[in-house]
Specification:
Strand order of the largest sheet: 1-2
Largest sheet: 2 strands, antiparallel
Radius of gyration: 16 Å
Shape: globular
Structural class: mainly alpha
Number of helices: 6
Length: 168
């Protein structure tokens, strides 16, 4: 069985963006029920040197739009990292979801062999499309999605593995 780059990238990204959005809905409800200031969760970090929930969601969205754009050969849209509330984080996810879902399978034709070059600091990282997708993008994307989930779970939001996986 062969799988296209579109099938390997867009549906899993859509699934995870929807899952994290649903987890944020549960976080907002949890805050309301427990009389917790949502800003506490948005600014929470698992360790002093880690990025807070807001940054995890921002990076997750940046990873999603960046990967899909690179693989499709289009310019990556820029989002300002200004979200400080759960509704603002939800809006960022929704905007990213709409962007990712706007792509068509034919935009990914040949993407597995395409050269992907990323500027990192003062250097560059070079990949073939499939190597970039499976060995760079997905580990980074899922790391930030998992860390966002873990922050909320640690803060007592009643979520579980099914929430993380979402509807399949």
């Amino acid at each position: 069985m062969s799988i296209s780059t579109y099938q390997a990238s867009v549906p899993p990204v859509v699934q995870m963006l929807k899952s994290i959005s649903a987890v944020l809905d549960k976080a907002a409800a949890h805050c309301e029920q427990r009389k917790i200031d949502p800003a506490v969760l948005v600014g929470y970090r698992l360790a002093p040197d880690m990025i807070p929930l807001s940054g995890q969601i921002q990076i997750m969205a940046d990873q999603a739009k960046g990967a899909i754009s690179r693989l499709a050969g289009v310019d990556i849209p820029s989002y300002a990292d200004t979200e400080t509330t759960i509704p603002e984080l939800q809006a960022r996810i929704a905007k990213t979801l709409a962007y990712v879902q706007s792509f068509k399978p034919e935009q990914f034709d040949g993407a597995e062999d395409k050269d992907v070059v990323m500027k990192i600091g003062s250097g560059e990282m070079k990949f073939k499309g499939s190597q970039y997708l499976f060995h760079f993008f997905f580990p980074n994307f899922y790391f930030h999605a998992t860390t966002a989930y873990d922050i909320l779970r640690h803060c007592g939001v009643p979520i579980g593995k099914r929430d993380f996986i979402g509807g399949i």
